[in-house]
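Worked example 4.2. Below are the chains of a multi-component assembly; read each line carefully before continuing.
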Amino acid sequence: MVLVVVALAVLFRASSYDIYVANLAILAAVAALGLNLLTGYTGQVSVGNAAFLAIGAYTAVAVMARAGFILGVAAAALATAAAGFVVGFPSLRLRGLYLVLSTLALQFIVAFAFEKYQTQSGAIAGYTLGATALGPMHLDSDRAWYVLLVVVLAMATYVAWSLVRSKPGRAWIAIREHDVEAAVIGVDVTRYKLLAFVISSGFVGVAGALAAAYTKHVSYEAYTLDLAVAYVAMIIIGGLASIVGSIIGAAIVTVLPFLITNAANSWFAGAAAGSFVQRNLPFINASTYALLVLVFLMFEPRGLVGLPARVVSAARRARGASPGSAAKQGVI
Amino acid sequence: MSSASGLAVAVAHLELQFGGMAVLRDVSFAVARGERYGIVGPNGAGKTSLLNCISRTYRQTGGSVSALGECVDRWRPHEVARLGVARTFQNMAAFRDVSVLDFVMLGRHTRIRSSTFVCALGIPFLTGDEARQRRAAHGALDLVGLRNVAKTKIGELPYGLAKLADLARALAMEPRLLLLDEPAAGLSSDERGHVGRMLLRIRDEYEATQVVIEHDMALVNLLCQRILVLNAGQKIAEGPPQEVLGEPRVVAAFLGGRAAASEAMPERGRGGS
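Applying the procedure described above to all two chains together yields the following structure tokens:
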């Protein structure tokens, strides 16, 4: 309900530029939701997100012009899910850092492949997509896109929420906690790990396709390792294994650079430090969220959504009752 | 394996080696359906490894294992679970961030039929299927007396209660064969009494075959109709607990010490530890 009110308020009150930023945040949130299913819930760290976004975007480029918007998004979801299935296989053998390296390989393979494809096909400056039509509606403004993207995010949130609270989500959490014990409990670890990769990358692929159609431009150099790492930052800052955290984290990491840029422009306008700050804005942006990630990893691994719980437990400690002792008194 | 079909567990000439070290050597035993069977022996005797061979987290290097009438030698762990074999864990080190209820709901995993697609659309929440599974999980929690900590995280529970939650998780599977790995180990005497009463209740109220590893001989005496004594990976005795526990080589194995162990097994002087 709160989200609906916020969404409507933004729609009617915000400037077109603000809505553009909000749209980017929503697109990031859809991908972050997917990544959190894989990393937060299933415990499989991946830096393949930029590659999955790219696969979604390029599939959209290839399909949307011929088959329309909806089929383009669907094809992107399927193509990325298939890629996720393949990338998931190393996870059956590899853990932790080794798995990160195998997803890193995907990043370089995809970047290389799309760069070659792009230059060979004569589209060195990238591909331009036409205006998007959804049935009779023409998505020709940021506001129209905003409505569509809010609906997509709501659907993605509902699906992610349903998954993590039912059988697949519990199986994923079991794999994250202890894969051998999960198997003994009855979880088919192979199946559910691959399922996590497939569904997660499907989300990311949809985000990639929608972003392509929204920005109307796709080029390989946008899909950098930095971008992949930014998505990991989103779910760490927002909260691993948290649906709401994915959305909050995506919003913060997306909006922060715009805020910093605005602040730099207004505070340092005319000042001597101004030109230095403006020249180094990309570095300042990157190091700001890197710093946020570090702070959260060190002080609140549950991310922003962990903060209320921390306040509650601090209050409880102040009253001198630990949950453990309460539990014990209650039972024996 | 037609002769094994009436058996809950049939282990024949089981061998397990890690590198050059023999963990289990030529272990054979059978557990009838509905029987309560104990596995005892000093630390390092291979008891948990034996259970691991039944639940397939270990793959034996020789011999054969059948569970509930199926030869499971080529099965994977989750397939054994799906057959109706539940297993508790010796120490509850994992799942610390999971609530007790969610953990016990994991026990329902093999019982929930909804496909991932159906789950993704949230349909189990609309049809009441999820609520039904939740009631079953609460039932298991009631049985072990943990209903009022359903929302607590496993890691916040005292050790004894975490082990009870694990037992509830195993019971929630509605198993036909229940493998319990030291259910009373590491507990305070209060908790031990509680778990003991729990196990006796399960013994009386459940049809499930039970195979229990336990060091508390008083508990073993109460719970088990027959026991298997392992020492240094070998079966050294089998039978009703009152008879078996008095046998000199069993006593020697439990008293430990190099002399006693090598006397019990002259061919190889590995004490059990």
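Take a moment to check your reading of the output against the notes. The interface with chain B takes residues 158-159, 161-163, 165-171, 173-174, 177-178, 180-189, 195, 199, 322-324, 327-328, 330-332 of chain A (CB under 8 Å). The CA atoms of residues 7 and 150 of chain A lie 7 Å apart.
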